From TrEMBL:
Residues 34-66 are annotated as: Disordered. GO terms for cellular component: chloride channel complex; postsynaptic membrane. Three rho subunits (rho-1/GBRR1, rho-2/GBRR2 and rho-3/GBRR3) coassemble either to form functional homopentamers or heteropentamers. Rho-1/GBRR1 subunits can also associate with alpha-1/GBRA1 subunits to form a functional GABAAR. Interacts with SQSTM1. The chain crosses the membrane at residues 275-298, 310-328, 340-362, 457-474. This is Gamma-aminobutyric acid receptor subunit rho-1. One of its GO terms (molecular function) is extracellular ligand-gated monoatomic ion channel activity. It catalyses: chloride(in) = chloride(out). Its main location: membrane. Residues 1-21 form the signal peptide. It comes from Ictalurus punctatus. Keywords: Cell membrane, Chloride, Chloride channel, Disulfide bond, Glycoprotein, Ion channel, Ion transport, Membrane, Postsynaptic cell membrane, Receptor, Signal, Synapse, Transmembrane, Transmembrane helix, Transport. The keyword Disulfide bond applies.
Length: 475
């Protein structure tokens, strides 16, 4: 009996110990959960109190299903090889331009280079998409190959390209109602037929022409979106040789016999050339050469080594100036304003050389005739005193003025000998009475110094008159 009771008591004690252990484990688990919740609550309260930006992570929306632009614009549902509204009225395409720079103007090639932003506006209902707000979508050049865009080109262009640094400078913007904005940055070199008849005092008018290549005015109607305000220019645009007077826009129709009528847009600008560069490089040197050629009129006619090189130097310098100007100009078939000025200046320089040639030739001819008359006369050694008396009574005023150019020392030498020869011939004519058969020596006397004296007045006066007429016509 005792043994049974002891076994029951042991079993009861073991059961009580196990129940107590289970209850303790449950309490420990419950305490740890409460502690973790309390710590998390304290952490959140501390974050809110300290103003930390760390918040609860938002879900990643990029991992959601976002429709592609092709699906949103329904590109695969339409045939974009045809223009919008095919079969109906012509689609209007507005254009505006912002000129970024006017790079070069070339007279030799007859062209100009311009960089501009060309923008097109039209409506294509096939590209409309549902949208709660009027928020547009912007795309780059990769979408252009999948939709319809106007096929614009520059008429009379020689070279053009779309900028592609760092990517193609192309922008496409689509609105929910189907309106489209297409913008491109392009540099174009186009022809400019210049009239250089007034060069370098000229004003040139050039134009850049925009037209659709394939669509006539029955399919596509080009127009300036805001009239003359559709053309904007950068305030910093400037050229070294030209002053930009104005930019303006026009619209005309162009006809091709094989295809029909097309709308054509014109960007016209007027340029006036700066004259200061040409005044400094062409006109002033030419004028100085002409004035330098006049110096020979004040040099003694017997100073051949002084007058001849001076004339040749001025002639060669004028030839160099003319050659340099023509080398930088196109070979046009008409005369330019600068050609008139340079060639007239060249003629004045050349005439100054001919003037000395005439003076030298007449002086030589006169000396030969005097030598012949001197050989026919007897010795004039004893006629010095008589020569002085006769000179004072019969020598003309012109001869007295002529002798003043070389001083009285010449009268005592060759000049006095010339006077005596003349007086002797007059005496001989009086004795024999052959006035009709023998030419008077006074008629053979040519005052070569008077040619230089008149040239000092005629040449500057004529050149001044030419400048007055020239600048009044071309300026």
């Amino acid at each position: 009996m005792r043994a049974d009771w002891l076994a029951l008591l042991c079993v009861a004690l073991l059961g009580a110990c196990r129940t107590e252990a289970v209850m303790r484990g449950r309490k420990l688990h419950t305490c740890s959960q409460l502690r973790s919740r309390r710590d998390a609550t304290r952490t959140e309260e501390g974050i809110h109190k300290s103003g930390s930006p760390i918040l609860k992570r938002s879900p990643d929306i990029t991992k959601g299903s976002v429709p592609k632009s092709e699906h949103l614009l329904r590109i695969d549902d339409h045939d974009f090889t045809m223009r919008p509204g095919f079969g109906g009225p012509a689609i209007p395409v507005g254009v505006d331009v912002q000129v970024e720079s006017l790079d070069t103007i070339s007279e030799v090639d007859m062209d100009f280079t311009m960089t501009l932003y060309l923008r097109h506006y039209w409506k294509d209902e096939r590209l409309s998409y549902p949208g709660k707000t009027n928020q547009s979508m912007t795309f780059d050049s990769r979408l252009l190959k999948k939709i319809w865009v106007p096929d614009m080109f520059f008429v009379h262009s020689k070279r053009s390209f779309i900028h592609d640094t760092t990517m193609d400078n192309v922008m496409l913007r689509v609105y929910p109602d189907g309106k489209v904005l297409y913008s491109v940055r392009v540099t174009v070199t186009a022809m400019c037929n210049m009239d250089l008849s007034h060069f370098p005092l000229d004003t040139q008018t050039c134009s850049l022409e925009i037209e659709s290549y394939a669509y006539t005015d029955d399919d596509l109607m080009l127009y300036w979106k805001k009239g003359n305000d559709s053309l904007k220019t950068d305030d910093k645009i400037s050229l070294s040789q030209f002053l930009i007077q104005e930019f303006h826009t026009t619209t005309k129709l162009a006809f091709y016999s094989s295809t029909g009528w097309y709308n054509r847009l014109y960007i016209t600008f007027t340029l006036r050339r700066h004259i200061f560069f040409f005044l400094l490089q062409t006109y002033f040197p030419a004028t100085l050469m002409v004035m330098l050629s006049w110096v020979s009129f004040w040099i003694d006619r017997r100073a051949v080594p002084a007058r001849v090189p001076l004339g040749i130097t001025t002639v060669l310098t004028m030839s160099t100036i003319i050659t340099g100007v023509n080398a930088s100009m196109p070979r046009v078939s008409y005369i330019k304003a600068v050609d008139i000025y340079l060639w007239v200046s060249f003629v004045f320089v050349f005439l100054s050389v001919l003037e000395y040639a005439a003076v030298n030739y007449l002086s030589t001819l006169q000396e030969r005739k005097e030598r012949k008359f001197r050989e026919r006369l007897p010795c004039t050694c004893g006629m010095s005193h008589a020569g002085h008396v006769m000179m004072s009574s019969s020598y003309s005023e012109m001869d007295t003025m002529t002798t003043g150019h070389y001083g009285m020392s010449e009268v005592n030498g060759d000049k006095r000998e010339h006077m005596l020869v003349r007086l002797a011939m007059d005496k001989e004519q009086g004795i024999h009475g052959r006035a009709g058969k023998t030419r008077s020596y006074s008629s053979l006397w040519i005052d070569t110094h008077a040619i230089d004296k008149y040239s000092r007045v005629i040449f500057p006066g004529a050149y001044t008159l030419f400048n007055i007429i020239y600048w009044s016509i071309y300026s």
